[in-house]
Amino acid sequence: MQVPAPFEYERATSVDQAIGLLERLGNSARLVAGGHSLLPMMKLRLANFEYLIDINPLHAELGYIRFEADEVRIGAMTRHRELLESDELAAAFPIFRDAERVIADPVVRNRGTLGGSLCQADPSEDLSAVCTTLDASCVIRGPGGAERVVGMEEFHVGPYETAVGDGEMLIEVRLPVRKQGGSAYEKVERRAGDWAVVSAGAAVWLAPDGTIADARVGLAAVGPNTTGIPEISAALWGNTPAEELYEQAGAIAARSCDPATDQRGSEDYKRHLADELTRRTLRKAVERARS
Amino acid sequence: MQVTMIVNDVEVTREIEGRLLLVHFLRDTLSLTGTHWGCDTSNCGTCVVWLDGEPVKSCTVLAAMADGHEVRTVEGLAKGGELDPIQEGFMQCHGLQCGFCTPGMMMTCRALLDKNPDPTDAEIREAISGQICRCTGYSTIVRSVRWASVHEAAAAVNQ
């Protein structure tokens, strides 16, 4: 029987009360949202805490998808199912629905959250790649209601490590909305609901003349971080979308990533996937930006 | 710590450890052994119960998280001694062989029909994609859910 080591269970009643608890208890405490990454790690005793602060009661406060003029704001407690089912989100960023369809399974998606996924900071985690692709910003709240906003590159410090410090909490993710954009996500997995062997996200924004005004690619499971690849963006800027251009981007993805051979596949195979999935997602993102 | 929740329409209050998982609370503390305990890693889905009407994998939910909420298990499917159409469907269409995955399958499929009374085979398969039948009897499970869907629709017309 797998059970977590003993801990004191605390229940959050508001964001600021949870931050107050974190401040008081320091790094002996951890927030738990959906729990579908953290509890399995605690069962395996890979993670042990003296206090677990349950923030599920904050779903009413932090479970939302808001559409502003120039950005979409998503609360950290928004669950995978809510992200999958939002037609407005799928219209603004189809990459979200692409990714949510292949994250775990429908029952797990009833519990798992956006904030929990990002804070877990697993290098194969899909939403981190999505947020990287969309150039998301993370709103981190600390003691006294002080808020700071960090980009994804800064948010992900390393595997299982984020910029969220002791006494702080990720409360919101902001996605900039720009004109004539399209996005897509593709994942190769060994079986339904598994972690990615490799996955790729792409977002493209077109200029009025049909050339690429901006483009971003985010990869998962091919290195310690799911950071974007600036060289791909630079290669695409100002060019007319074409198959040769996607090939060029795929080649950059394959050589820029840093995969390791493991039970999911060899390094060579993963580089091949990074190349192929980069091409496929760019192709689809452009199609969507045009329609 | 003390928790109070509604389980199958009955309020229960118990003293528990914070680390107790909902599946063990149901099986060991409340003796509701209809909910099965399988892989322990949220992969197999035999432990699926409803938390506030949503299917969840109870091996990956703390009992404490259900405090103040409503839980429904396979024991809470039948009403007034009458089987739920999902249970009837599994019986009619041979939806179970060894029966180990059955409680989780039925809880997920009941929730599916509540949201989508006439699902396609693909939608049924998607709904149970996080659940494993090691007898590999998926075709008959899909048929059982179709049976329940058709019979519920017919019953609604007759009323």
TrEMBL record, chain A:
In terms of superkingdom, the source organism counts as Bacteria
| Coiled-coil stretches | none
Q: Which SUPFAM superfamilies match?
A: CO dehydrogenase flavoprotein C-terminal domain-like, FAD-binding/transporter-associated domain-like
Keywords associated with the record: FAD, Flavoprotein, Oxidoreductase
Entry keyword Electron transport: no
PANTHER family, per the entry: XANTHINE DEHYDROGENASE SUBUNIT C-RELATED
Q: Can you name this protein?
A: Xanthine dehydrogenase family protein subunit M
Automatic annotation (TrEMBL), chain B:
Entries under PROSITE patterns matching the protein: 2FE2S_FER_2
All copies of the 2Fe-2S ferredoxin-type domain together span: 1-77
Q: Which UniProt keywords apply?
A: 2Fe-2S, Iron, Iron-sulfur, Metal-binding, Oxidoreductase
Q: Has UniProt tagged this entry with the keyword Ubl conjugation? A: no
What Gene3D superfamilies has UniProt attached to this entry?
Answer: 3.10.20.30, [2Fe-2S]-binding domain
Q: Which InterPro entries match?
A: 2Fe-2S-bd (IPR002888), 2Fe-2S-bd_dom_sf (IPR036884), 2Fe-2S_ferredoxin-like_sf (IPR036010), 2Fe-2S_ferredoxin-type (IPR001041), Beta-grasp_dom_sf (IPR012675), Diverse_Oxidoreductases (IPR051452)
Which branch of life, at top level? Answer: Bacteria
Name any one Pfam family assigned in the record: Fer2_2
The protein in question is named (2Fe-2S)-binding protein
